[in-house]
């Protein structure tokens, strides 16, 4: 428990320092809060990628859990800023820039969800690539080779499976023959 709290605290400190440093790049009187938007969108992507990568590559226990809490909850949580996003939206509404506030609100939410989704896709791709490479399934370029559900290399050839005299592509507990073997026996 103490390790988890320490990881979140340390990560949150680092993330907050990064956000504060980046926020200083934007003038306080800027009409469009581009730095907060950039911070929140990149944070959405990074968090989606991190969490999906960790979920794809192993269980959330031990050191992995501490890293997830430190990086995800701590660093990315400190880096992103919902409170500044709401304050900037409110400031524009009370300053009679309602249209600007609504556009900022919509872009932040919609594009934030898109960024999170892209991060999840990237994390899944990276995670599967790591798992496949760890299993030793690489092609001659050193890249992870695609695998089938049995974990063996699968470069697109689907076995033909005969079940009750009907030939189907796919895997099953039946007599399987590759496409070339089926052609040889005809």
From TrEMBL:
<keyword id="KW-0915">Sodium</keyword>
<dbReference type="Pfam" id="PF02537">
    <property type="entry name" value="CRCB"/>
</dbReference>
<feature type="compositionally biased region" description="Low complexity">
    <location>
        <begin position="166"/>
        <end position="176"/>
    </location>
</feature>
<keyword id="KW-0472">Membrane</keyword>
<keyword id="KW-1003">Cell membrane</keyword>
<comment type="function">
    <text>Fluoride-specific ion channel. Important for reducing fluoride concentration in the cell, thus reducing its toxicity.</text>
</comment>
<keyword id="KW-0479">Metal-binding</keyword>
<dbReference type="GO" id="GO:0062054">
    <property type="term" value="F:fluoride channel activity"/>
</dbReference>
<dbReference type="GO" id="GO:0140114">
    <property type="term" value="P:cellular detoxification of fluoride"/>
</dbReference>
<keyword id="KW-0406">Ion transport</keyword>
<dbReference type="GO" id="GO:0005886">
    <property type="term" value="C:plasma membrane"/>
</dbReference>
<keyword id="KW-0813">Transport</keyword>
<feature type="binding site">
    <location>
        <position position="80"/>
    </location>
    <ligand>
        <name>Na(+)</name>
    </ligand>
</feature>
<feature type="transmembrane region" description="Helical">
    <location>
        <begin position="97"/>
        <end position="120"/>
    </location>
</feature>
<keyword id="KW-0407">Ion channel</keyword>
<dbReference type="GO" id="GO:0046872">
    <property type="term" value="F:metal ion binding"/>
</dbReference>
<feature type="binding site">
    <location>
        <position position="77"/>
    </location>
    <ligand>
        <name>Na(+)</name>
    </ligand>
</feature>
<dbReference type="InterPro" id="IPR003691">
    <property type="entry name" value="FluC"/>
</dbReference>
<feature type="region of interest" description="Disordered">
    <location>
        <begin position="166"/>
        <end position="186"/>
    </location>
</feature>
<keyword id="KW-0812">Transmembrane</keyword>
<comment type="similarity">
    <text>Belongs to the fluoride channel Fluc/FEX (TC 1.A.43) family.</text>
</comment>
<feature type="transmembrane region" description="Helical">
    <location>
        <begin position="32"/>
        <end position="54"/>
    </location>
</feature>
<keyword id="KW-1133">Transmembrane helix</keyword>
<feature type="transmembrane region" description="Helical">
    <location>
        <begin position="66"/>
        <end position="85"/>
    </location>
</feature>
<protein>
    <recommendedName>
        <fullName>Fluoride-specific ion channel FluC</fullName>
    </recommendedName>
</protein>
